[in-house]
Design a protein that fits this description.
Distance between the termini: 32 Å
Structural class: mainly beta
Shape: globular
Number of domains: 1
Strand content: 25-35%
Number of helices: 2
Largest sheet: 9 strands, mixed
Length: 215
C-alpha cells in the first residue's frame, strides 16, 4: 500500500505542478482531487482546481465526498471500492437537461444503460436501447436522483473484465457508493458547468493527497 500511495501522490504532484512525461503532449489545466483520510474510509474531501499560470486556484470545495463502502484501492467488479489513481473524465450525462457543460452530455431516459456484465461485448460502455442483452446493466434513469448529474471516471478505458465498470462522479444520496465518488447536487452541477474537455480534466483519488500551490 505504501508503494502504491507513493505512486499516486507522485502522479498528482506531477499533474498539478505542470510537469508531464514524454508520453504526454501537455498537462491538464483542470484537476479534481479526492483525498480520503484512510484507505477504508467511505468519505473523503473533494476540491476542484484550475491552473492559472504556474499556480492553481480552487473553483469548487473543499466539500465532502462519499466513496465506496470499502474505501479506496484496487478496483474489482462487484466490490464496493473506489479506484485509487489519477484518471481522465469522460462522458457526462444526467436525468436533468444539460446544465451547460462543455463535456459530451446526454440526457438519460429509461433506454440508457451502463453495461457492467463481464461477459458482455459492451462491458463498461453506455448502451442506448429499450432492452439490453446483459446480465448486469445499470439503468441510468431508474437509478434515481444520484444520476441527475454525472460524469464518467474513465478508470478502465481498455474495458478489462474484473477491473470494475460504471465508475462515475455523481450526486450524493448521503450514503456510501458502490465505488463511485458522490458529492452534493449543487456542487456536481457546478463542476459540470466548469469542466472543459480542452482542459484535459482529470480526477485524482487516494489517501492523504496533497493540494496544489494555489493563488
Amino acid at each position: 500500500m505504501r508503494r502504491k500511495l507513493t505512486a499516486v501522490v507522485g502522479a498528482v504532484t506531477a499533474a498539478l505542478s505542470g510537469t508531464v512525461s514524454t508520453a504526454q503532449a501537455s498537462s491538464p489545466t483542470q484537476m479534481i482531487v479526492v483525498s480520503a483520510p484512510a484507505p477504508h474510509s467511505p468519505t473523503a474531501t473533494l476540491s476542484a482546481y484550475e491552473r492559472v499560470g504556474d499556480r492553481w486556484r480552487v473553483v469548487v470545495g473543499p466539500t465532502r465526498a462519499d466513496l465506496g463502502s470499502l474505501g479506496v484501492g484496487q478496483p474489482e467488479d462487484d466490490v464496493f471500492r473506489t479506484p485509487e489513481g489519477t484518471f481522465p473524465l469522460g462522458q457526462a450525462f444526467g436525468r436533468e437537461p444539460d446544465p451547460g457543460t462543455r463535456m459530451p452530455y446526454f440526457q438519460a431516459t429509461d433506454a440508457d444503460w451502463w453495461d457492467e456484465d463481464v461477459r458482455s461485448p459492451t462491458y463498461n460502455t453506455h448502451v442506448h436501447a429499450e432492452e439490453i442483452d446483459s446480465g448486469d446493466a445499470e439503468n441510468l434513469y431508474d437509478s434515481g436522483p444520484i444520476y441527475d448529474y454525472a460524469v464518467l471516471i474513465d478508470h478502465n478505458p481498455a474495458r478489462i473484465p474484473g477491473r470494475s465498470a460504471g465508475i462515475f462522479l455523481h450526486v450524493s444520496d448521503g450514503e456510501p457508493t458502490w465505488g463511485c465518488v458522490a458529492i452534493g447536487r449543487d456542487q456536481m452541477r457546478s463542476i459540470l458547468q466548469w469542466l472543459d474537455p480542452a482542459a484535459q480534466p482529470q480526477i485524482a483519488i487516494g489517501v492523504g493527497l496533497p493540494g496544489p500551490p494555489t493563488v
